[in-house]
Every structure is written in C-alpha cells, then in structure tokens.
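From the shared-data thread, chain only:
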Amino acid sequence: MKAFIFDMDGVIIDSEKYYALAIQRVVNDYGHEVDQEYTNQFIGTTNTYTWTRIIKDFQIDSTPAELTEKMMAYKEQLDEEHGLIFYPGILDLLKRLKAHGFRLAIASSSGMKEIQQTVDVLDAQDYFDFLVSGEEINLSKPDPGIYLHTAKLLEMKPSQCIVIEDSHNGARAAKAAGMYCIGYIDTQYPAQDLSMVDQKIYHHDDLDLEQLIQTVYGE
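Structure, as tokens:
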C-alpha cells in the first residue's frame, strides 16, 4: 500500500502571495505595517497560530477567529479578482499517482472551506481519499500531528506515506512524522529552508514516480 499526501498552498495552488497581502491588509487596518519578510514566517502554519502570534507582536485588541475572518474576506476578494492559480502539471500528477495505486490526501493548514473549494475548482474530487485541515485537529505545522492523523485516516504507517511540501514548517512536520518528504520549490518566492527534505523538485512533471516508488517502497 502506498500513500501520497499533499500540502495545498504553495504546492497545488499558488496562494501564498494572496495570503501575505491579506495579512498585511488586516494588520494595516489596526494601524501597523508588515512586509513579506514578516509574513513569510507563517507559511505552512494555521490561521489560529498566525493570528495568535500577530496579536502578541502588535498588541491588537481582537481574537484569532475575528482576524482570520477579516483575512479570509480580503483573500476571497483577491481570489475573485485573479482566480485560483494552479501549479502546472498538478492534475496530471494526480492521475499518474492513482494509476500507480497510491491513496491520496490533502493535509493543509488552511480551513476546510478553502481546501474543498480548491478541490472543486480543480475538479479533483474523485482523486482524494481524505481532505484534512489543521484547524480541525487544533495543531499547527511544524507539529507532526496533521500528518500522523492523515496517515491514520489512510490506514497507513508513516513510513508508507510520501509528503510534498513547500514550506520549512511543513517539511519539519512531515519529517517529524517519519515520512518521506519532497520539497516543492517555487523560485518566485524567497527560499524556504528545505534542507531536511529527501528530494526537491521545481515542477510537478519533474517527479519520476518509478524511481520514487523504488526509493521509498523498494518495488
């Protein structure tokens, strides 16, 4: 049995820039300014973790839930203006993985509404066995909890799971869970520390599944 677990933002969809802009707009509403270098530290973490930290940093009189709602309103505006941007080759990769007998899941720090919307727009409902949100299990990457939970849902041992991640926090979570981790690199963004991953790719078409299966499963 084989399993492949996707992070979503920065792996399936190019959304990190819109999240950064949405965070900046919310913080600006409270009279503060932050740049992309500041928001980069939250890539791969849950909204609750992000806003708990920002509230502490800027002494904002609000709650993580209220600020997440404001952020998502800005994010939805950006999505409506620009549309969801899918990384090239993602749908073909899903097809190739299914053809090789993989069970598939998404394990994302985003909320379930955003995950479901992404899958629906991609028209990929039939490919994924499970969709998992970090908000549901109340643990943020780099804690491995979301990946261990997803492995349990898939009825797989961690060693049977391959993860694809774009962020330092996400890669740390995957490795802490005892899983093989592929680092997905988008060169338009500042480099994340992915020194702990088992291999790196720059495009979904770069993934040699036959070699990957041999490396991880010895088949």
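The mean pLDDT is 95.
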